[in-house]
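Can't attach files on this board, so I'm pasting raw text. These are the components:
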Amino acid sequence: MLELQHLSFEVADEHGGKGIVKDVSLTIPDRELVVITGPNGGGKSTLARLIAGVETPTAGRIIFDGIDVTDLSITERAKRGIAFAFQQPVRFKGLQVLDLLRIAAGKRLGVGEACEYLSAVGLCAKDYIDREVNASLSGGELKRIEIATVLARSARLSIFDEPEAGIDLWSFSNLITVFENMRRHIRDSSIMIISHQERILSVADRIVVIREGRVAAQGPREEILPTLIGTTSAVAACRQLTKEDRE
Amino acid sequence: MKQLNEIQLRLLQEVADLHGVPEGAYNIRSNGEAAGRQSTANIEIVPKTDKPGIEVHIRPGTKNESVHIPVVLTETGLKETVYNDFYVGRDADVVIVAGCGIDNCGNQDAQHDGIHTFYLEPGAHVKYVEKHYGSGSGAGKRILNPVTEVHMDENSSMEMEMVQIKGVDDTERTTNAALKAGARLVVRERLMTHEQQRAISVYAVELNGAGSSADVVSRSVARDDSYQKFDAKILGNAPCQGHTECDSIIMDRGRILAVPGLEANDVDASLVHEAAIGKIAGEQLVKLMTLGLTEQEAEEQIINGFLK
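---
Top answer:
Structure tokens for the assembled complex are below.
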């Protein structure tokens, strides 16, 4: 279980300071899939980075499984069971997909096991296992590999920062299947997804709306989702993609 | 074969992946003298009579055979220049593994300069692997200055893999190649320098025949206070294709100079140079740390992958 207590994150600007995340308190319970939504620039991704330890909060505490992890490093949080899929996956010259999956799993994963994680994200494992995680992979391929590394971690808390960004429509429906499967097999773990895709919101147990750095609303999906349909916090996949195509 | 001690055997393993006497043709040089030599039906190794070194004659059509010519130095103060010539017959296809390991525990410099000259007949194919390694705690430097001259006849091809990862204080590597029509040269250099080490690598490749091509790629890491210079020049004197690439990571106070050199003397010469130098990207470290590695472990993984 993850608890955020009065979490704030400010950055310095010409007016002294600007709040990105303002006094956010919320709980991600075990065995739940929680989607964080809200307009762009509202502080959702920053919240994810604060939880993973990539950014340090200016105020508030982060309690994970009853332990205060606010002052722990990225590595220590990862070891305690926080997994984080980046919005923009990182490229590595020389490192192969199998290397990355092995690091994620924290053991010398067999090729067979590694293939299962790749198949789960819709990649034909034998074509990818030896590929370098470099610029030869497309944005969509990288994104799926990124998600596979998080699956391989089998973490207590898996955080996905806009998993649909940079993914094509066909992959997007597969992505939904990945999350549905994760939700079905959730045991003593929890999942947090940053997204404003309606279809991702509809697999959530709970939805949290973050607007201008604050929690604007939170509650069970049945309660929150109807209030979001048609707003920028719950965008239909087709509309979003055609919009990006035009841009 | 002359008995080698533990240190010499360890060096042999580092530079040639050899645990004992290799199969096929070989010549092992230890502290300035021959420690073992074997020719085969198709590959003849004979000592030079006018200067130190050997001649390796590979008969035309020889396939899937290998030649190992490792050198080990464990005596402080030893300096040698050795001339090795390789004559590779028409349509032969062989692997040549060279390499030099120096263990210097003394206070004087130990130095090996290997001058390797290759003559490839038409259609010959050579895979050449050269590893350098240094160890020993003495104040004396471990110095290696290899010179490689490659003469490639029509439609011959050569793949060169040069590796120097550890322990060599000073290197000046010179590689010159001249290619006739249809010949192809591929070079893959892997280099890591530490402390005060200095490594200079100079290539001059002449593409003289129509349809010849060269691909010279260096990946390197400069750590501590080390210095590297990568100077790759390709001359396109005919319709040809040339590509050089220097991809480097700098750490600590490491310094790297990449000097691109392309000269097109034929309107159908197509030459490309790429160079990128920079430290490890912060986001790469962060990504691996979110997978549970410490910053130092993440750094090692990134470098291992990069130099793989």
